Amino acid sequence: MAADLPCDDAGVCMVCGVAAPSEVDLLRCSTCATPWHSPCLSNPPALSEAAIWSCPDCSGDPVAPAAPAAGGELVAAVRAIEADTTLSDAEKARRRQNILAGRSAASAPDDDVDDSAEDDVLNIFGRSFSCAFCMKLLDRPVTTPCGHNFCLKCFNRWTHNGASACGKCRRPIPYKMVQQPRINSAIVSAIRAARMSKNTNPAAAGSSAGSHHYIQNVDRPDRAYTTERAKRGGKANASSGQIFVTTAPDHFGPILAEHDPRRNTGVRVGETWEDRLECRQWGAHLPHIAGIAGQSRFGAQSVALSGGYEDDEDHGEWFLYTGSGGRDLSGNKRTNKEQGFDQTFVKMNEALRQSCLRGYPVRVVRSHKEKRSSYAPELGVRYDGIYRIEKCWRKIGVQGTFKVCRYLFVRCDNEPAPWTSDDHGDRPRPLPNIPELKDATDINERDERPSWGYDEKEGRWKWMYEPPTSRKPVRTGLRPKTGKQARKRARSDEMPNDPEKLLNEFSCCICFQVMAEPLTAPCGDSFCKACLLGAYDNQSSVRERSHGGRTLRAQKIVKRCPSCATDISDFLADPQINRDIMDVIESLQRKGDTTTKDDAASYGYGADKAEEFRGGDLQEEADPEMDAEDNSESDTDADASCGRTVVGIKDQEGQQLQPQKRKGGVAIIGTDDGPSKRITASADVEQKGNKSHE
DNA sequence: TAGCAAGAGTTT
DNA sequence: AAACTCTTGCTA
């Protein structure tokens, strides 16, 4: 592949490094307006073509070599459609889609996406959920603060080539979003719901029915702390709370309903916990510090991705993991990131190698501490399902001196990943191309049938051999359930098959109604405009400070997302409506109107509710000093409300709204028929975090 | 039982 | 921020 790169934000050519290419040498792409240094192009255009030149990113697909140079013709064809004033927007979209569908069918043989089915799903949403770059149905949608939606891959390709403005409206994209774009969960679940309603195959539908990606922890830990000292030192010093599942510590594979007498659901993909200790209590990943759970002689059961090793590389469905060790941690140097010696295949690294050789299923959890991945949760620790280690090897780490152990993890779970809109789990996929393998030593891969494999007949992943027998006793405070105690899951898991049910996917996290004027914050959470802005109505964006009669520099006030507590104050300064979501909501409401007029009335806009919310005085409630007192009560509160705690937002009727700020507190906002989300809040809403990314 | 571990709160 | 300190759980 030719190493064609554009000029960066400062106008510096990323190939030759020349600071300010002269106007003569500067070429601007006629499609995306990105500047390029003409002498550094592998295939520069003739002078006569410079005005209509399309850059290598727009005219071809550099990451999909199977797509031939026909890209230029495609762009020309798309432009011809755009220029045709006789066509309506819908017709233009339809024609663009047709052209691009032809290309995808030819260039991506391993892509099992059925284009006509995709088209159906697009139609359900009035074609609003198509990516502005690839024109296809949004895949892992991310939303810019200006309210435009793109596939994550398209967005990354766009920004990695130096663009820092929205591809649709040219407004600047915040640095933080360029670094770590967040998946828009509302769009993901809406598309999935639409797929489910199209899917008449009960087996496929059943495999992921009810896979919620924000599962409330109905049962709070019974005993998270055991000693007085632990209470003083916070959770870091806490001994483990009760283990709720009946799996042995060396249990391989998913945690099923039969291992979960408390809830009878098992650990589902997308389940999120506040921290590693809570994750441990549900058996997904037992060690509370270490990233790898396993035994060198038998294999590894689970890993955590939490950003501790800079060599890691996360692509969602597959990732490259780094082994542990190689660091000098003597003398309580817990945080030493520097490598002091080579990693070798011993201890946990050997356990992972064993799982690789035998093709064992490995549970994967991602932590919010992983700051370089779009697939990491915003908060807490999330279970992402089963992966298999397809290969492992050693190579010099990015620090450049010592070797690290490397593992290629590929997802193979029967439930879809939290970031995809797929209505089914994984299918066997070809291994990704790993360039670093050519410099690798000690390459291992399994040479026999994997223990965890895909059954083509049944269409699901399962044990191909008997799972390895446990060598450890079950540690749990609960006896395994008896036949009498075993309750069947009281869930109908009925998926939406009409516009009104689909509308439920667009609920505002504040008023629980279908969103009116939807806003998507950079963290990926969506709200009614009135609800979100109403929540901060009485707050100014900066605090004037004075000291001894002098006026000091104004301090920015942090405003946290009501759902995930990310600072969204920059977004709130100029929030833009997500028009695509709004169009979809309106079109679904129109469809609903024509079918059942009476029912449609119940899907009211949230603005009225938001009006009520504004009655609550946020600033007074936000006084940090209130929290200390409040804190001692928090556990009691949680217990008293059947595990469904609503912190801050009192109830659905909107009597009171306040930000979530209980120290270490976890709250669940949920309704019986609406989506539920766990939210964690910190006590220092306005105390810390007064620095912002610029 | 020593030593390690991709944690977390507090202090500097 | 980084350093320091406090811990527990697990492997070997």
From TrEMBL:
Residues 481-490 have a biased composition (Basic residues). It is an enzyme of class 2 (transferase). It is found in: Nucleus. Residues 10-61 form the PHD-type domain. It comes from Zea mays. Residues 471-497, 591-694 are annotated as: Disordered. Residues 618-638 have a biased composition (Acidic residues). Residues 591-600, 608-617, 685-694 have a biased composition (Basic and acidic residues). Keywords: Chromatin regulator, DNA-binding, Metal-binding, Nucleus, Transferase, Ubl conjugation pathway, Zinc, Zinc-finger. It catalyses: S-ubiquitinyl-[E2 ubiquitin-conjugating enzyme]-L-cysteine + [acceptor protein]-L-lysine = [E2 ubiquitin-conjugating enzyme]-L-cysteine + N(6)-ubiquitinyl-[acceptor protein]-L-lysine. One of its GO terms (molecular function) is zinc ion binding. This is RING-type E3 ubiquitin transferase. GO terms for cellular component: nucleus. Gene3D superfamilies: SRA-YDG, Zinc/RING finger domain, C3HC4 (zinc finger). Pathway: Protein modification; protein ubiquitination. InterPro entries: PUA-like_sf, RING-HC_ORTHRUS_rpt1, SRA-YDG_sf, SRA_YDG, UHRF1/2-like, Zinc_finger_PHD-type_CS, Znf-RING_euk, Znf_FYVE_PHD. Residues 131-170, 508-564 form the RING-type domain. Residues 262-411 form the YDG domain. Its EC number is 2.3.2.27. GO terms for biological process: negative regulation of gene expression via chromosomal CpG island methylation; protein ubiquitination.
